[in-house]
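Researcher: I need the complex structure. Ligand is calcium ion. Inputs:
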Amino acid sequence: MIKWTRRSVLRRSAALSTVTFLSPVIGPAIVSGARAASSNPLFTLGVASGDPWPDSVVLWTRLARDPLDGGGMGDTPVAVNWEVAADEGFQRIVQKGTATARVEEAHSVHVEAGGLEPHRWYWYRFNAMGVESAVGRTRTAPALDASNDRLRLALACCQHYEHGHYTAYRHLAEEEFDLVLHVGDYIYEYRAKDDRPRRHNSAEVKTLDAYRNRYALYKLDPDLQAAHAAFPWAAVPDDHEVENDYANDIEEHGRQAPEDFLKRRAAAYKAYYEHLPFRRGARPNGPSMRLHRPLRFGKLASINMLDTRQYRTDQKCWAKWSPRCDAALDPLATMLGPDQESWLDTALTKSETHWDILVQQVPIVERGRMRDGQLMHHMDKWDGYVGARQRLFHSIQRRERGGLVALSGDVHENWVGSLKADFGDPGSSTLGTEFVGTSISSNGDGKDTKKSRQRMIEANPHLRFHNGQRGYARCEITADTWRTDCRVLPYVKKPGAPISTRASFVVDRKSNRLESA
Ligand code: FE
Ligand code: CA
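Model: Output:
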């Protein structure tokens, strides 16, 4: 097992005893409780918190005595007591209450704990049927008018269970973040396959019961539990929470009737909601789930959580790498759908924060690639939705200032680049910066930049960096500067890999200038 966790907890606990109340912005990583969570007889899936506001945060858990087989909680609701404390030892309990773990929500609870102070750490725990949960730590957002000087974000996605271990989350839990952003592929729907580092628990998941059991398999992982217990998260799903490369009501190959596929999507969204710390407003209604939402961190940053799957038009030309056919230029094609598009336009043009952050699934930046003498683009990404991207860029341009950063995932590689008004013209204005996060485990160990990727950087002057190893991105945002460190692991097929920073970048807010650090 990993040796440094305990040492680090002790070090942080010693620091805590003197500084908790004097300096509420400093807190220890809570990992001791989460490490034991898998052996908890009732709270087998750990605890989590999310979507922090200045005065409230969501607390999540799910009761599951038999997590891989339906939960084992029977057909009666269960009362779940919850407590929020200002200290790790729960000497100063500031809020408490009782929630109902409902049968129809797989005995999950989503508590919106209110009445909290802005911009400080809190600790929380649950108690049900005489059993106490692990302790989680969470953090509220600063007040809307606060001149907070720093925001620390982690960017994670794509955690195929069979492809490797969640060592990245173990390291992530040891760092200090205000918020963890997860941009999708929290589970993969695929059937179990042999000869991989770990194994899925069923055939391809298509029903509510199967999705629930698949989430339970993933959430039994102690490293994932530690990352949830250490920080609040804000998540949006991508395709694999439902099905590979789906678009709105169209399944991957378009072979299933939309009304049948929507039944699958409803089951998938429901299970997703049941396993993540969403506010009640996100509770799915049949196949619909309101995922796009704002988060605010004082005067420093506005975070726009976006959904590029639920409302998009179907992929054009061909869903993968393809020469761009005329349909990819279709001005009626959409990635966000009209309602979300206009919501985002308003959010961007009315924003008064230093930074506006787009948190979404698929890369926005153009990534052209020559193959067999033809220029190819990946049609599942914004490259396949050129008209929609121009509308997005128009909204960004209407801000008339710098400080626009997009965070995305999906491709299991790091990409760092500038968003250009015209990707074909290196002299056109730079509208913002995109950091594409690599995967936590998907595609196994991965490797550093391949020749083909190096050629893509040469052919796309707005691209600056590629990395094909696993890991996460660490972002530190201050009023004038954004810094991203690409944190990577040498391997994930075996547990225990060390972490290191593969590359670092800084962005100057006013000019959008992107440089290596
Ligand atoms: Fe993925
Ligand atoms: Ca994906």
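Model: Summary of the prediction. Residues 158, 185, 240, 410, 412, 439, 442 surround fe (iii) ion (ligand 1) (CB under 6 Å).
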